[in-house]
Each structure stands twice: as structure tokens, then as C-alpha cells.
Amino acid sequence: MGRSGIYLLGSLASGIATVFALPLLCVPWLARRWANRHRDRAGRLLETPLAPRPALGAPGRRASADPATPRDLLWLPVHALTGIAFGLPALLCVGNVFLATVATPLWWAFDYEDRPRLFIDVPVTGWGTALTLGPLQILLLAALAYVAFPPIARAHARICLAVLSYSTAEQLADRVEVLTRTRADVLDAHGAELRRIERDLHDGTQARLVAIAMRLAVARQALSGTPRNEEFLEELLRDAHEGAEEAMTELRDVIRTVYPPILADRGLTGALTAVTARCGVPTRLHVDDLERVPAAVEAVVYFAVAEALTNVVKHSGATEADVRVSRTGERLSAVITDNGSGGADPRQGTGLAGIRRRVLALDGTLGVDSPAGGPTTLRMELPCGW
């Protein structure tokens, strides 16, 4: 009853706000945010899992091309009507319970003309009336709320989801758009990754190997001459040895960015333990039993957590962070939170944008909740039932 009552009173308040702010809410991106807010409330009340709808401000999405925009605009008058119609009885019920609660012990504090009335038109003129009709009104209205509030709230929530839910054709069209955009992002990311690997190998490892080969060639020539300069040879061989070790280190770094060896050696839990242990902010890690997870999913979660914690250290000013990884059915979720200053925006900078590209490449979802002042919560979900 409590959840339903809060839902109905909130619907009444937002329905009245919709009436007064209707011209402003007709702006498509505001209508989308307003509709998403009510859609999420309805889903929570009905305990129905809902796929997130992207904001109109997301790259590649235009209001005129988005099949959900007409539904967002239709929801405005529908909610103004249903929110007030469904919420007003709840307000009257709650208000009269409050009136009886106040009138029962304090009826005498009011002037005779202003004394409260119970059961609509029965004035409270004495303790007998107060102690009989007051509790009776409270009990009857509480029973009415217990019986009526949940179905009324669920009815409003179903209307909300019926108006704002995609049709099959709209779901298909939106899915095609998302996959098209994701494929383009993946191809761009793949090309950038190949160029980065080529540049690292060309400018770093290859240059060091060339230098090693030159030093060894000079050393070979020195060995063939007479007399031998042992100090000169020792210096050349030492430089060649150090250069070989540096080249191997750079090569390992390049390999690690392709697929971290720690994942193969220690699994996802061990790899995340190492990442959180190295983080400059105290970080708690909780990993459920994940069973078997595809290697591609493990790599995405590892890189995403590592990048997210790097952002926490660099930008958030947080004093603690938390990483939780769990699996429900065929979906693996990872949630990274911190108590920093907030304000993280995936549309700015490359850190969150890179995480989003990796997650979308595997048909996953990424949500960022980072209000100004914090805290910041980054939630990703990935399919792992391949």
C-alpha cells in the first residue's frame, strides 16, 4: 500500500506539473526525459524489467527519425489526464486520514465554527464524537487504501507502459539503427586499435630492435679486428642487452592491450583483484560466482573496470570506490561506484566513450549516473550466454 500510495501521489503531482509545463515539455528531448522517468517508475512498480531507451541527445539519434518520439508526446496529455484522475482520490483518502488523526486529539483547539468535520459533514463537538468517529474514519480509509491503492496504481502503470512501449516494428527499427551505429563504432575502434598497435611496434619495439642489431654488428666488427677493445665491446653488449630487455617490455605492453595475459593466468576475478589492488583509491571488490564467461566478455569487463578506476583516480576526487560483478542468467553486470564529485559525461572525453564502444560491440548496455556533487555509478550489462 505504501509504494502504491507514493506512486499515485507522485503521479498526481507530475500530472499537474505536466498541465502547467505542457508547452515546454513538447520539446522532443524534454518529452523523452519526462516519459522515461514515468516509464521507469511504472516498471519498478510492476517489477517489470525494461530495456533502457536512449536519450535523443545521443549521437546519431534525431527526434524526427526516432519511432518513440510520437509516443513521448502522446504521453503528455495522457499523463495529465490519468495522473490527476488516478491520483486525486488517493490524495483525498490520505488527506482525510490525516484530518481524522489531527481531529481526534485536538478537536478542542479549533474555534466552534472551524471545528473539523468527519465523514464529510459530521462536526466534532465533543470527546465522544472524536473518539468514535475519528478512529473509525481512519480505519475505514486505511482499509480502503489497502484494498484500492495497489490495483489503481498498477492500472496507471500499465497505461504508462502501453503508451510508451515500442511496437514490434518500432523495436525492430530501433534495433537495426543501434546495430548499424554500433557496427560503425566497432569498425572505427578496430581501425584505431590496429593503427595504435602498428605505431607502437614501429616507433618503439622495431626501433629498439634495429638499434640492437646495429650494436651487435659493430661488436662483431670489433671482434674481427685487432687488437680487441674489451671495454668498448662490453659497453656495446651491455647496451644491446638493455635494449633487448626494453624491447621485450614494450612488446609485452602491446600484447597486454590486445588480451591481458593476467586473464588467461588468473581468470576475471584474479585480474580484477589485481586492478583494484593497484588503484590509487581504496576500492572494495565483490565478485559473485560467474560460472563460465566468454573470453571477449572477460576482456571487456577487465578493460572497462580498469578505465573506470583510472577515471576515478584522475578526475573524481573520490576517497573510496566499489566494484561489484555479478551474473543473472545469461547477463553479466558490473557496477562501479565512487563517492567523488560526480559530473561524469560519456559524451565528453575518451575514457567513458571507449568503455561504451567496447560494451556496445558485444551488444551490451552502459548506464552512467553521475549528478553534480556525486556519487557516480557506472553500470554495464553484457550477454554471456554464447
Shape descriptor reads elongated
Rg value: 32 Å
| Strand proportion | 5-15%
Q: Distance between termini?
A: 42 Å
Give the low-confidence spans: none
Summed up, the helix count is 10
The SS-based structural class is: alpha+beta
Q: How would you spell out the order of helices and strands?
A: HHHHEEHHHHEHEEHEE
The strand count comes to 7
Keywords:
single chain; 386 residues; alpha+beta; Heat Shock Protein 90; 5-stranded mixed β-sheet; two-stranded antiparallel sheet
Would you kindly provide a written description of the structure presented here, covering whatever features stand out?
The chain is of the alpha+beta class and 386 residues long. It folds into three domains: 164 residues, no CATH class; 84 residues; 122 residues, Heat Shock Protein 90. Helix content is 66%, strand content 10%. The chain contains ten helices and seven strands. It has a five-stranded mixed beta sheet, covered by helices on one side. Strand 3, helix 9 and strand 4 form a beta-alpha-beta unit. The longest helix has 57 residues. The chain is elongated.
List the helices and strands and how they pair.
Elements: H1 2-20, H2 22-25, H3 28-46, H4 69-106, E1 117-118, E2 122-123, H5 127-164, H6 168-224, H7 230-258, H8 261-278, E3 283-287, H9 295-316, E4 321-328, E5 331-338, H10 351-361, E6 365-369, E7 376-383
Parallel strand pairs: 3-4
Antiparallel strand pairs: 1-2, 4-5, 5-7, 6-7
Helix pairs in contact: 1-4, 1-5, 3-4, 3-5, 4-5, 6-7, 6-10, 8-9, 9-10
